[in-house]
Amino acid sequence: MRRLLALLVVFALAVTAFVAVGLAIQGGGRDAADTSDAPPTPSPTTPPPAAVTEAPDPSLADFYSQRIDWQPCERDEAQDCGFLTVPVDYADPAGDTIELALLRVPASGSRVGSLVVNPGGPGAPGTSYAALGRQVFREPLLDAFDVVGFDPRGVGRSAPVDCLSDAELDAYLAGDPTPDTPAEQADHREAVLSFGEQCAEGSGPVVGHVTTTEAARDMDVLRSALGEEQLAYFGASYGTKLGATYAELFPERVGRFVLDGAVDVSLDARQLALEQATGFETALRAYVQNCLDSTDNCFLGDTVDEGMATISGLLEEIEQQPLPAGERELTVGNAFYGIITPLYNRDYWFLLSTALASALEGKGSALMNLADAYASRNPDGSYADNSVEANYAINCLDDPTSVPFAEVPSLFPAFEEASPTFGRVFAWGMTGCRGIEVTSREEPLTIRGEGAAPILVLGTSRDPATPLRWAVALAEQLESGVLVERDGDGHTAYNADNACIDTVVEDYLIDGVVPDDGTTC
């Protein structure tokens, strides 16, 4: 299966999957995956003031002098598509370059400026995120801002990493996430080790330059190309790590920043995995409790513990005997992703109930559909994007920490305490980067963002993927962090049927109204 990549840092992939599955990446024209030796060519349009385009290093001046040649997108002419040229290696700006795919939804009202957005993952295409418009962002933001999404390097149409064929990815996602027998463990080992090798073979030099730090540097080139002296930014989930990294590298360029579903950037790989395991366990228990509260006869049982036992038992049965799912078989790996995907949004809990009830009757199609949404798999067997592969490449380049295969059982007690249902899945996920064959020259950052303008850090009390405590920690780590908490379920806080949160975010981004630190909604 998808070995939870490095840490099971799934973050916002499933959120966008529900509303974006089947949505092709907008645009057309040039192939943004190609590298080139040619330096970027400044646009002939009138350049913005020098204060906007001043490069942090003279060797980057050509990149910072770019203007974006926006053209109507092929799939929606009300949206604009473009490209941005950046160096493959910022230490060698005269070397190869890549083009980043961009998509802009122009402001529909009185324009305040550009708002750059990132949906997380890592690996989710930002162009698709921006293209979703009112399905993701509320009308006040769409009125005030040009919403600009970009596919980070290695993602989508921005020099995408390529590791597996569609059939190989199917097999990878379907694999047993808790290999018990020697044969299963051998299969797991082979899948992990070959993934990194195939990424290196299929992706070219960019695979060694898809770190969060380099993506944050790209965002500053984008800021300059947009003609903005300071960057306004909305980042969800992993996008909060990207935003916090930008704040550390370019604190003086931080404008109005919202980091929603925040990641604690100080945690090591093991602690991240443990706390995320706890988050998914908490979310699943909340789902079962809702089933009990919503009906006199919850199909899962009479208590939360009974309901959790029913789900665990179902997974054990599927591990022994996969369920029919149309022309495919629902394996325990697929079932795992099918279960966690609806936990990202309370509005989709009814889909989980439908899928679980069907699986308990021996039918796997509904759970398989949810698993496919998580991985951006199309009905015809193709994949809408490379989010699974990019997730692996970015996570493992940022932090190649992994646990030797033989040591995984020693992790079971701690992980099963964190999550009796999913603990062993997360423990085996700690082997995910064993196969990585490239390393980054980027030095780890201690993120403080000293000197940055106020940064809103949002967390949700029962967020499965980014626990509230991570938002609390990131707000404390950022010198100008302002914590805002949502009491609720699901992943991320904005546009989640909480008027208080929506008002706080929109008043801040549009009018610059900074809420009190510790505001609770």
Describe it:
There is one protein chain. This protein has 521 residues and is of the alpha/beta class. The chain has a domain of 283 residues: 3-Layer(aba) Sandwich (Rossmann fold), CATH 3.40.50. Helix content is 40%, strand content 14%. The strands form two sheets. Strands 1, 2, 3, 4, 5, 6, 7, 8, 11, 12 and 13 form an eleven-stranded mixed sheet that branches. It has a two-stranded antiparallel sheet with strand order 9-10. Helix 19 links the parallel strand 12 and strand 13. Helix 13 crosses helix 14. The chain is globular and about 65 Å long. The two termini are 38 Å apart. 55% of the residues are buried.
How many strand segments?
13
Number of distinct helices: 19
> Could you state the oligomeric state of the chains shown?
single chain
The H-level CATH homologous superfamily of the domain at 13-160 and 209-266 and 444-520, spelled out, is Alpha/Beta hydrolase fold, catalytic domain
Indicate the CATH architecture of the domain at 13-160 and 209-266 and 444-520: 3-Layer(aba) Sandwich
CATH topology of the domain at 13-160 and 209-266 and 444-520: Rossmann fold
**How much is the average pLDDT?**
90
Helix vs. strand class: alpha/beta
Uncertain residue ranges: 1-45
Binned strand content: 5-15%
Briefly, what CATH class of the domain at 13-160 and 209-266 and 444-520? Answer: Alpha Beta
* Biggest β-sheet strands, sense, barrel: 11 strands, mixed
C-alpha termini separation: 38 Å
Spatial shape: globular
Radius of gyration of CA atoms, rounded to a whole number: 22 Å
What share of residues is helical?
40-55%
